[in-house]
Amino acid sequence: MKVALIGFRGTGKTSVGRILADRLGLPFYDTDALVERRAGMPIPEIFRRAGEAHFRALEREVVASLRDVEGVIGTGGGAVCDPANVADLRRQGKIYLLTAPPGTIVNRIAGSDRPGLTGLPPEEEVRTLLLRRKKAYLGAADVCIDTGKRTPGEVVDMIVREQGYGNVTAREDAKTRKHERDALLERFGLTAVRDMLERNPGLMVCGIAGNPCAHSRSPLLYNRLFEHFEMNYHYTRFEWPDAGVIIRLANLLPLKGLSVTIPFKADVIRDLDEVDEHAAAIGAVNTVVRCGGRMYGHNTDWLGVRTPLIHRRGGRAVVLGAGGAAAAAVYALRSLDMEVTVLARRPEAARKLAERFKCRWGVLEDFRGSDADVVVHTTPVGMEPDTRSLLAADDLERKTTVFDLVYTPPETPLIRAAREAGCETIPGTEMFVYQATEQFRLITGIAVTPELVREMLA
């Protein structure tokens, strides 16, 4: 059994860790103490002599040495900002994020000889670093516990009682929640997930929310990655016509993350507690991270569009479609300083999207004669069983790069037409790969390479 405690200084990792280790009959490993032992000097001296980078390198070595231990691990406040540390801590383990309000943290660490990291006044530094580390903390955590008004013993009691819901709360209504959860899982056709949870109460769940989503390759990818990193996680499908019902089930499960697809990328926002700046600007969420009973919305689709098109920076682009994926595409293209035109079957939808991002718009028929350097197709047309293409080979110029966000089938009718016209083509699998690398990091705290994602999809 391996339990890792993460969080900012002053949240109680060491005091909680010692009591928890004693309660569980396991050894306690304090990574800061192990760094000091390895360096032969206290941490303030390491910072003075060699700087933070050297401290982080020593910390990386210490965490790696604990990859296969059984015990309770208390980490330094910035340890999980290194995704490699997260991968080692997650290996056959469970991670608890301990939190506290900034003011409480400042009071708890007052008088410490640890050097500051920003040069800011103490409370301002705490707030700045908490914000900077927020995504890393939430991604790395399986369970979040607020220690602000709890004693270390009370926090330990909560961890010991924790039954895998991913949100440590009072359990008076546990039977009622379990009954509702199991009933919804049966309605969703997910009795296999119910049985997994019965056999493995510590299992964490992720899934794709959409209607339809049976075509998605996310379950294949995620479950292979979970196995690769030795995580006690399972990824499934939540296919249902109502996003609110999916969110209700998510809140009854030990759920850590959701991939969101058609038609819920905009609708799901109303059910979230926070939405990041990119998702807010796009008006669509494709990634939900859950921790401490709160849901955080992100959009990684735009990175999946942007990365393969960096070589086309400053060109002229046409986006076909005006939905959530189109908004992500326009956002990505605008970040590459491209001149963008939105074309859609519904003129009003095209106009509304174009006005949001201050670009041109029109109907699909306006594409004829286009001098676009880049065409990004964002509609479901071409996705099996709809085998049409919005454009034919003679609509396209050889100089054009055609990016079809549809990835099932791998070679869509549009991609075939573009190849026939001699265009550079980018299949939707590339968008899937690049958005998935960022999505996996947001949900798990682990960084994966595009090469590993492609290997897992093969």
From TrEMBL:
EC identifiers of the protein: 1.1.1.25
Superkingdom as given in the UniProt entry: Archaea
Pfam families, A to Z: SDH_C, Shikimate_dh_N, SKI
Residue ranges annotated for the Shikimate dehydrogenase substrate binding N-terminal domain, each copy included: 208-288
Matches recorded under InterPro entries: SDH_C, Shikimate/glucono_kinase, Shikimate_DH, Shikimate_DH-bd_N, Shikimate_DH_fam, Shikimate_kinase/TSH1
Catalytic machinery residues: 265
Chain sites annotated for binding NADP(+): 277, 321-325, 405, 428
Keyword Amino-acid biosynthesis attached: yes
Keywords: Amino-acid biosynthesis, Aromatic amino acid biosynthesis, NADP, Oxidoreductase
Positions with a binding annotation for shikimate: 216-218, 261, 286, 301, 407, 435
Domain SDH C-terminal positions: 428-454
Reactions that this protein is recorded to catalyse: shikimate + NADP(+) = 3-dehydroshikimate + NADPH + H(+)
Pathway: Metabolic intermediate biosynthesis; chorismate biosynthesis; chorismate from D-erythrose 4-phosphate and phosphoenolpyruvate: step 4/7
NCBIfam families: aroE
Assembly: Homodimer.
Protein family per UniProt: Belongs to the shikimate dehydrogenase family.
Purpose of the protein: Involved in the biosynthesis of the chorismate, which leads to the biosynthesis of aromatic amino acids. Catalyzes the reversible NADPH linked reduction of 3-dehydroshikimate (DHSA) to yield shikimate (SA).
Stated name of the protein: Shikimate dehydrogenase (NADP(+))
Organism of this sequence: Methanoculleus chikugoensis
Origin organism lineage: Archaea, Methanobacteriati, Methanobacteriota, Stenosarchaea group, Methanomicrobia
